[in-house]
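Propose amino acids for all 349 sites.
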C-alpha cells in the first residue's frame, strides 16, 4: 500500500509592531490568507492608534465588561434590566463563547432564528438585535473590533401595533367611578395633557407657569428616581385648558408642607411609580366595570386620538406629545376625518 501523501500546510509568520511574533499553520490556503489579512489590518491599526486587539476575548466576556462600564448605573433602571435580560436569555446562549473578532452576520441570524423558534414577536426580536448591535458598536468604539460585522442588518417587518384608547363613554364611566379616588386629579390631568406617566409624576411646581398658562415638561420620574431630562432630552410646553388649570390651582393652594411635586398622595409625598399602574389604575378600571382594560400609557393615546377627532392637526399634536419624528405621530393620522376628506377631494372623476 502506497504511503498517503501528507496534506499541504500553509504557514503564516508575522512580526507585530509591538514585538510579538505570531506563527500559525493552516490546512487551507483560504484560512491562511484570511489570517494574514487580519494580521495586516491589526498592524495598520496599531500604526494609527498604538492599540492592539485582544484576539481571545469572547463576546460574553466583552459584553459583561461593557454592561458594567457603559450600562450599569448610567442608564435607567428599566434599560439596565432590559439589556441584562436580552444578553442573558437570548444573545449569550447563542454566541457567548464565540470570540468577538469571529462574529459574523451568520451569528445575528442564529440569534434571530432561535427567538423566532421560541415564538417571540418580531418587535421583541428587533429590540434584542438592537442590543446586539449596540454592544458591537461599542466594541468598535473601544478599539476591540475594526468594524461592526452586522452593521445594516435588517429588522424584521413588524405588524402595526393596535392603537388602544377610550371612547368618551369609557372616560365618563371611569372618571365617575374614581371621583373620590386620591389619584383622580392625576387621571384627569393626564387625559387633558397627554403627558407620559414619568413626566406627570416628575412634574414639580417650578415647571407650572400659571402666568403663561402652561406646563413645562423637563423632568421624568422612573423606577430609579427623578431624572432632570425627558425621553427625547428636550423640554416641551403644554398649554393648560380650564380643567387642568383649576385642578393645579387648587392643588397648589392646598399642598402640604410646601411639597415640590405636583402629584402627591394623600400624605403629601410623591407617588410611587412602581405601584400606581398595577395597584391603583388597573384595579380601578376593573371595579368601574370597564370591559376595555388599558395601560396607563393608553391615556396618552386617548388624549391624542380625541385631539385629532376633534379637529386637531398632526403638527400641533407632535409638539404636544414631544415626538422628535412626525412619523411617530402619524399613527393618529387616520383619525383626522377632515384631513381625509380634503385628501379624497383631490380626485373627482
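Proposal:
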Amino acid at each position: 500500500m502506497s504511503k498517503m501523501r501528507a496534506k499541504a500546510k500553509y504557514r503564516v509568520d508575522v512580526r507585530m509592531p509591538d514585538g510579538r511574533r505570531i506563527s500559525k499553520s493552516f490546512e487551507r490556503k483560504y484560512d491562511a490568507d484570511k489570517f494574514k489579512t487580519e494580521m495586516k489590518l491589526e498592524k495598520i491599526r496599531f500604526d494609527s492608534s498604538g492599540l492592539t486587539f485582544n484576539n481571545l476575548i469572547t463576546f460574553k466576556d466583552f459584553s459583561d465588561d461593557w454592561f458594567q462600564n457603559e450600562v450599569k448605573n448610567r442608564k435607567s433602571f428599566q434599560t439596565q434590566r432590559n439589556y441584562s435580560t436580552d444578553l442573558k436569555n437570548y444573545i449569550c446562549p447563542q454566541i457567548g463563547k464565540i470570540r468577538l473578532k469571529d462574529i459574523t452576520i451568520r451569528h445575528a441570524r442564529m440569534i434571530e432564528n432561535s427567538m423566532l423558534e421560541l415564538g417571540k414577536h418580531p418587535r421583541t426580536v428587533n429590540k434584542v438585535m438592537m442590543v446586539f448591535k449596540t454592544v458591537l458598536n461599542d466594541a468598535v468604539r473601544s478599539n476591540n473590533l475594526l468594524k461592526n460585522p452586522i452593521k445594516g442588518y435588517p429588522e424584521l417587518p413588524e405588524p402595526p401595533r393596535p392603537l388602544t384608547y377610550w371612547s368618551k363613554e369609557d372616560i365618563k364611566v371611569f372618571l365617575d367611578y374614581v371621583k373620590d379616588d386620591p389619584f383622580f386629579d392625576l387621571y384627569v390631568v393626564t387625559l387633558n395633557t397627554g403627558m407620559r406617566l414619568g413626566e406627570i409624576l416628575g412634574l414639580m411646581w417650578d415647571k407650572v407657569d400659571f402666568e403663561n398658562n402652561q406646563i413645562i415638561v423637563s423632568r421624568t420620574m422612573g423606577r430609579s428616581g427623578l431624572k432632570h431630562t425627558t425621553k427625547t432630552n428636550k423640554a416641551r410646553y403644554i398649554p393648560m385648558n380650564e380643567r387642568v388649570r383649576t385642578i393645579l390651582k387648587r392643588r397648589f393652594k392646598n399642598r402640604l408642607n410646601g411639597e415640590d411635586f405636583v402629584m402627591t398622595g394623600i400624605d403629601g409625598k410623591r407617588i410611587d411609580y412602581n405601584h400606581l399602574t398595577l395597584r391603583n389604575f388597573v384595579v380601578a378600571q376593573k371595579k368601574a366595570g370597564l370591559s376595555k382594560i388599558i395601560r396607563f400609557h393608553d391615556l396618552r393615546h386617548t388624549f391624542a386620538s380625541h385631539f385629532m377627532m376633534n379637529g386637531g392637526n398632526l403638527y400641533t399634536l407632535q409638539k404636544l406629545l414631544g415626538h422628535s419624528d412626525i412619523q411617530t405621530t402619524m399613527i393618529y393620522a387616520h383619525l383626522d376625518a377632515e384631513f381625509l376628506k380634503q385628501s379624497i377631494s383631490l380626485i373627482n372623476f
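The longest strand covers residues 10-15. Confidence is low (pLDDT under 50) at residues 1-5.
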